[in-house]
Amino acid sequence: MAQELLQTFESDIARVSLVPGSGGIFDITLNDQLIYSRKQEGQFPELKVIKQRIRDVIDPTRSLGHSDN
To answer: Looking at the domain that runs over 2-61, which CATH code has it been given?
Structure first.
């Protein structure tokens, strides 16, 4: 997932960091803004959903091609 995000948003994302946690936490933040929480949503995210949410924060007009369908 990290590699795919870095490729899709190569000019916008400088790094992807994994922070160890406990209890099955899987949160994705962008500039300190929570964009996905497995605990809140009750499931592990699909990559296309994460790409759409990142795009919506950094450039809402950008097309993600097949990830927008």
So the answer is: 3.40.30.10
Going from the C-alpha of 45 to that of each of 1, 11, 18, 36, 61, the distances in angstroms are 10, 23, 16, 8, 22
In 3-state terms, what secondary structure has residue 34?
strand
* pTM recorded for the entire structure: 0.85
Q: How far apart are CA 57 and CA 11, in angstroms?
A: 14
| pLDDT tens track, the chain, 69 positions | 999 999 999 999 989 998 888 888 899 999 899 999 999 999 999 999 999 999 999 999 999 988 787
